[in-house]
Write a structure and sequence with these properties.
Layout lengths: L26 E4 L2 E4 L12 H8 L24 E3 L6 E3 L4 E5 L5 E4 L7 E5 L3 H10 L1 H6 L5 H13 L5 H4 L2 H11 L1
Antiparallel strand pairs: 1-2, 3-4, 5-6, 5-7
């Protein structure tokens, strides 16, 4: 180009229009050459950061609803759950009866639920007690062989408890149906 001095790299420098200072148009001088910074379009206003955030934010309808806040207050108390070894139903620890094998190997009922040793739980149904004592389920759960004298003592203990009968609990028809299918 004629009349435009070349920069040391061989690129012609851009001269500002007459009457406008080079710094007003975003022109800076580096190493003796002039470079132009990109200028904003005419009539554009510079936005402050909060205004820019509002302008760039998606409309309110596009925002997902806020999750409901958790209520403050005490946590609900943890209630330990146990399983009956005979019918495998779950209930609270206090709702089942515990049989414990003590450190010396004796098998006894544990009305407090706190004695040392391995424990097994039975629900309040008469059928579960009979099934656990007659079939050896209780012996397997306690990892011990139970002698007939101890089984009789546990049956006498079960007789003193307010146990439900099979028909009152509604399990007799279910047991009769499943037993008939297996034979």
């Amino acid at each position: 180009m004629k009349g435009v001095p070349a920069s040391p790299q061989g690129v012609p420098a851009v001269a500002p229009p007459q009457g406008v200072s080079p710094t007003a148009q975003g022109v800076t001088e580096t190493d003796g050459s002039l470079t132009r910074a990109p200028a904003p379009p005419q009539g554009a206003q510079r936005l402050t950061p909060p205004e820019a955030a509002e302008r760039l934010a998606p409309p309110e309808a596009a925002k997902p609803p806020a999750p409901p806040r958790r209520r403050k207050g005490p946590r609900p108390k943890h209630v330990p759950q146990r399983m009956c070894v005979a019918c495998r139903s779950h209930d609270t620890k206090r709702g089942l009866y515990r049989i414990v094998r003590g450190p010396e190997g004796q098998v006894e009922p544990d009305p407090t639920g706190r004695r040392n040793g391995r424990g097994a739980y039975l629900c309040g149904q008469d059928a579960c007690w009979e099934k656990a004592l007659a079939s050896g389920i209780l012996a397997r759960a306690l990892n011990v062989e139970i002698d007939p004298e101890t089984i009789d003592r546990l049956r006498r203990y079960a007789a003193t408890l307010p146990l439900e009968t099979s028909t009152a609990a509604g399990t007799a028809p279910i047991l009769a149906k499943t037993e008939g299918e297996h034979r």
